[in-house]
Write a structure and sequence with these properties.
Elements (H helix, E strand, L loop, with lengths): L18 H16 L9 H12 L4 H11 L14 H15 L2
Helix pairs in contact: 1-2, 1-3, 2-3
């Protein structure tokens, strides 16, 4: 499965069987690692992004840009942000002042 006509049939489940894709993947992962990417290059979404670029006959640089553009630094949890030390100190100081008034 090493011809460009087979690229479209590649999925996350079977891409490891394609030696051309695996070479492409390793080159891109290594470059992302050397660039100190702010995400784990082993995450599934990164591999999927690289696979999509490969299937579109994109270059390694295209794959790197697509992975970097696809990174969302937003935490993947909902709710209020944690309380800062300054907020804790302010609340304690306010409570202290109320106790003395």
């Amino acid at each position: 499965m090493n011809t460009s006509t087979d690229r479209q049939s590649l999925t996350l489940e079977n891409c490891q069987d394609d030696s051309d894709f695996m070479y492409f993947l390793k080159v891109v992962e290594q470059d992302l690692w050397l660039r100190d990417a702010p995400f784990d290059v082993q995450e599934e979404w990164v591999t999927e992004s690289i696979l999509d670029t490969y299937k579109e006959n994109g270059s390694e640089m295209d794959a790197i840009k697509n992975a970097e553009d696809g990174f969302d630094p937003t935490p993947q949890f909902a709710g209020e942000p944690p309380i800062t030390q300054a907020e804790i100190h302010h609340a304690a100081w306010k409570q202290h002042q109320e106790m003395h008034s």
